[in-house]
Write a sequence for this structure.
């Protein structure tokens, strides 16, 4: 039995019942594929259901304010996905009459849609013969065929795309593409693959050569950068006597663009109270601050793909009138990084 037929048979017997598997609506397939990039199915599924409930069509998503989209996305990480999602929704809704393109060639022109996502939508929704190559597929192909070239060198993705095209079936492409991704996620898993009961084990090169845990090969290109964040959790009152705090919106092209955070003092290394006091921004009126206490002595290390944020929160009490302060009861309405959201849950305002 050919490779593709074994995948199809395995998928028919083992596929999970997932909410986006019951539709070929390109909006919902696109939504699920964007959310599941660098995100586990178990984590992404509640977000998918939440988004579909709030934004049942691409027009609903396009009409929503960006802050609402970012707030719903909060906790999924890689927030550029959410911003690109919103930008593409606007283009499809307002310039394409709410209709997604029905071909790989046109889909890949949309913001935030790369080769994999365009292939997935084109094949699953429109039956176009396009192979998908994501992390799961890289792993299946590398192990089964014993490919020892890196998946992320200059020609790696192109090589695996060609191989994926050679072994895909000319029929049932929708089921096959979902099947090979599912196979990589469940059967040919990264750390504990079920090789003993695998339908491909008799012809899997990696298994025969005892290289299952060596493949696929991925070059380590990104050097992790350590950054030291000191958040100033300001507590004061506004003109009406309400208890308020301060959140600033991040701008620029760095991490967490357009999300909100407490006033930040970034340092080259861990700092103490005396150094922190010298770095407090003038707009916080340092002379009117009457108390600063460290909330967490042990740094919270928040790990992103290319940087580690060593974070401490400082509780800053001030007698200054905070005219544009945010009432404490409204803080949770703002889209913040998960690091800030977890602090807000733990700290009793």
């Amino acid at each position: 039995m050919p490779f593709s037929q074994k995948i199809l048979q395995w998928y028919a017997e083992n596929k999970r019942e997932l909410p986006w598997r019951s539709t070929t609506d390109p909006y919902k397939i696109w939504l699920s594929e964007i959310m599941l990039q660098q995100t586990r199915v178990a984590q992404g599924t509640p977000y998918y259901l939440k988004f579909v409930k709030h934004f049942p069509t691409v027009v609903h998503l396009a009409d929503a304010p960006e802050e609402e989209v970012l707030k719903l996305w909060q906790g999924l990480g890689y927030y550029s996905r959410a911003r690109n999602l919103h930008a593409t929704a606007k283009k499809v809704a307002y310039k394409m009459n709410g209709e997604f393109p029905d071909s790989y060639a046109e889909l890949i022109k949309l913001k935030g849609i790369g080769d994999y996502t365009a292939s997935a939508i084109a094949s699953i929704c429109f039956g176009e013969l396009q192979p998908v190559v994501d992390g799961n597929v890289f792993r299946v192909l590398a192990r089964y065929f014993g490919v020892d070239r890196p998946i992320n060198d200059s020609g790696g993705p192109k090589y695996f795309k060609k191989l994926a095209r050679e072994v895909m079936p000319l029929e049932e492409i929708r089921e096959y593409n979902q099947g090979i991704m599912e196979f990589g996620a469940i059967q040919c898993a990264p750390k504990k693959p079920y090789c003993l009961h695998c339908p491909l084990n008799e012809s899997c090169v990696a298994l025969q050569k005892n290289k299952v845990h060596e493949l696929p090969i991925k070059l380590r290109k990104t050097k992790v950068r350590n950054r030291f964040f000191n958040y100033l959790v300001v507590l004061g009152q506004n003109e009406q006597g309400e208890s308020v705090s301060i959140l600033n919106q991040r701008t620029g092209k760095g991490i967490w663009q357009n999300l909100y955070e407490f006033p930040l003092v970034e340092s080259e290394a861990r700092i103490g109270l005396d150094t922190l006091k010298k770095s407090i921004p003038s707009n916080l009126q340092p002379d009117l601050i009457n108390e600063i206490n460290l909330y967490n002595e042990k740094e919270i290390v928040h790990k992103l793909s290319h940087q580690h944020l060593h974070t401490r929160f400082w509780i800053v009490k001030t007698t200054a009138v905070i005219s544009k302060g945010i009432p404490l009861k409204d803080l949770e309405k703002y889209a913040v990084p998960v690091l800030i959201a977890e602090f807000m849950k733990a700290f009793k305002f």
